[in-house]
Amino acid sequence: MNAAHPLPVESALVRALLAGEFAVTAEVVPPLSSDPVELLEKAAPTRGCVDALNVTDGAGARPHLASLAAAGILVQNGYEPVLQFTCRDRNRLALQSDLLGAGAFGIQNLLILGGDDPKAGDQPDTKPVFDLGPVEFIRMARQMRDDAALPSGREISHPPNLFIGIA
User: Fold this and answer.
1) Which of 156, 132, 133 is nearest to 143 (CA)?
2) What are the boundaries of each domain within the chain?
3) Which residues on adjacent β-strands are paired with residue 83?
């Protein structure tokens, strides 16, 4: 990140990493439910034990509560999520909109993944999107964050403040 855009140090995960501390994260798979209580019950055992909570995105190529919605619920309830986004299910327009949504929720940690093969899931006829691969997605996310602009050149009035990782 350049000097004009410092790291989002309000993130507990970033603070731990910058301090050279051993950062601890756990993973939560959002439920197959629209009830936020079910998600919060899954997250509860991690409270006070982790620096951040990874929120999976369609783990196992199966539907779950959307990772963006789940991460937003966690932020509203005092957790620090690491929002996982897969390239498998979204085209670049959806990815851009979801990154803006993450910023609106105050989500700061992002982990970009390719995503599990839909053939391994419970709906094997599902077609993957893969408009962008993980490397292209990270470039786009950095452009949105650092340059406050979409790849088309349109300016973003309040870009998302993201700590971006890739796996």
Assistant:
1) 156
2) 67-116+132-167
3) 55, 110
Number of Cβ atoms within 10 Å of the Cβ of 5: 15
Burial string for 40-49 (b: 16+ CB within 10 Å, else e) reads beebeebeee
Q: For the packed helices 92-105 and 134-147, what is the interaxial angle rounded to 10 degrees?
A: 50
Q: Which residues contact 5 (CB under 8 A, 6 or more apart)?
A: 145, 146
Of 122, 115, 165, the C-alpha closest to 142 is 165
The model's pLDDT over 4-52, given as tens digits with 9 standing for 90+, comes to 555 655 889 999 998 999 999 999 999 999 999 999 999 999 999 999 9
pLDDT for the residue 9: 58
pTM confidence score: 0.92
